[in-house]
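Pilot study result, target chain (216 residues):
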Amino acid sequence: MKRKLHTYASDALVVEYDAARCIHAAECVKGLPTVFDPNARPWIQPSAAAADEVARVVERCPTGALQYRRTDGGAPEAAPATNTVRLAADGPVYLSGRIRLTLPDGDVVEDTRMALCRCGRSNNKPFCDNAHEGAGFVDGGVVVDNQLRPAEADEGGVVEISLAANGPILIRGLVEIQATDGTSRSGARGALCRCGQSANKPFCDGAHTRAGFEAE
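Predicted structure:
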């Protein structure tokens, strides 16, 4: 996993920015332009607003590229009560909640926000890097056939994400899939397409084998 980590500190908190995970959703710029200004240097100035305001806007970053650590005794970010998988039309899958992602090399990323590639073209797999834009990836983000299995008693709380070699994103844990048409589906244990070729998106249908998809 690529990381390009930068830190910006005030007396009250430290803001961490991982440029490798940023896909310029611009929620930070829209939410608090006095602190997050791409034309300024440094572009993040956490002392330009109250720590609570900065923390609130950081939590709007859908990719997890922005994080914060309170140094003033303030509360850390709390994970949402519901683990969600939000589909973006022609774009990535956004995860929100208590997420534990196990990478192929064994490293574990625990976070409350992530954007994972589903076009198959990212150079920072499993994370999205906006490659879908140049690849012409097309998917409306609608769920036709829910293939998540019903949750069992031990599948609440943390959602476990792993990656099948040359294959899909594997989910274990109760999640709610949010489609672009406003509908949602719930369940646990499923496989999401990450090669971009499935005819039953967002779920895997084995197309990665036919397409010769390669990814750890």
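One observation from the pilot: The helical segments are 27-31, 51-58, 131-135, 207-211. A full batch analysis is planned for the follow-on phase.
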